[in-house]
Structures are given as C-alpha cells and as structure tokens.
Design brief:
This protein is mostly beta strands and about 190 residues long. The protein is about 5% helix and about 40% strand. The protein binds D-sorbitol-6-phosphate and zinc ion (ZN).
Length: about 190
Amino acid sequence: MAEYKKPFGVKIDLETGVIPGAKKLVRKLSDLKGYFADENAYSELLKDDPVVYEVYAIEQEEKDGDLNFATTVLYPGKVGKEFFFTKGHYHAKADRAEVYYALKGKGGMLLQTPEGRAEWIPMEPGTVVYVPPYWAHRTVNTGNEPFIFLALYPADAGHDYGSIKEKGFSKLVIEEGGEVRVIDNPRWKSD
Ligand code: S6P
Ligand code: ZN
C-alpha cells in the first residue's frame, strides 16, 4: 500500500525569497574559486568575501516521483565585467528536468549541453524557464537588486557540479558599455 505523506503549503516571502522552515545554504565568493574569468578581480573582491547567493530548499528523500523546490536569492555584483552567478550544474541523474519561475529582480539562465551548445534565456518576474533533461544550468543576476527565483525539480535529480567547476560554460555573461552581453568563453575547450 502507498505511504501517504502529509500535504503542506508554505508562503514564500516575495521580498526576501525566504521559505519558512526551509534548509538554508549560503554561497560566498570564496566558495566560487576558479569560477570567474578575471582572476585578479576575483582576488581583489575576495578581501570582502561577499555572499553571492543563498538557497532555501524544501527537499524530500531522493525517491523517484517525488519533488523538491527551492528559492535562490542571487545578489547583484560583478567580478570584473562578469555578473554574479550560481555555480551551475548538471543533474546527477542527467535526464531529470527542472522548472524555474522568476519572482523578483532581473537576470537570466545560461544552459549548456555536454558538447558545449549554450542558450541564454533572459528572466524577469513572471518568466518560467523549462530546463530540459541533460542541460547544465546556471543563473546570472544582470540587475542592481537581488534576483530571486523558485526552482522545482525531481527529488532524485541530485547535483553534478564537477564538469562545470573544471571547464565552466562555453559562454560568459558580462556587462560592456552598460549592456548585457553573452560572449564566448576564451578558456572554454570542448573535449
Ligand atoms: C536545483 C536548482 C537550484 C540551484 C540553486 C543554486 O536543481 O537548480 O535550486 O541548486 O539555484 O545553484 P547551484 O548551481 O549552486 O546548485
Ligand atoms: Zn538543477
């Protein structure tokens, strides 16, 4: 017989992104060593070691069929010309998809196949992004206030950070002349 969990509702604070009762994770600049293109700018900013993003997650046991959800509060800032971003990951179960819903601020999502084919999707409050199976995904704050969004993902998706940590994305999201630009990553090498 099925085991019935108790349904529940929670209210996301739409100003701060906080989900009451959620597990909180904090990522500071020091947790993102090697991720940004401009290493001198990174070292300089590391003296302050700002918080880059926080995640509030309500997660279930890693079982097929169940769902997790989490908000992310991605702070505004840049390392050199490159906007603050989340680490980015594939799912450990690579065929697991995900949906994002933007709540506050301005940003976008960089997605990439393992071969390095990239897509950039701008996001503002109300934007829903479908992350298909097999695509790595990273969010980027291109605005001046916290960029807050909700993510819904299978409970058994897991995270695979390794390849993005090593190789990054094939594109960088930078500010140039007051504009948001998506450019080729000069350090990107396909296998
Ligand atoms: C989980 C989902 C998000 C991210 C969060 C932080 O599948 O995609 O909740 O975990 O935005 O990003 P990252 O890349 O550090 O996990
Ligand atoms: Zn994910």
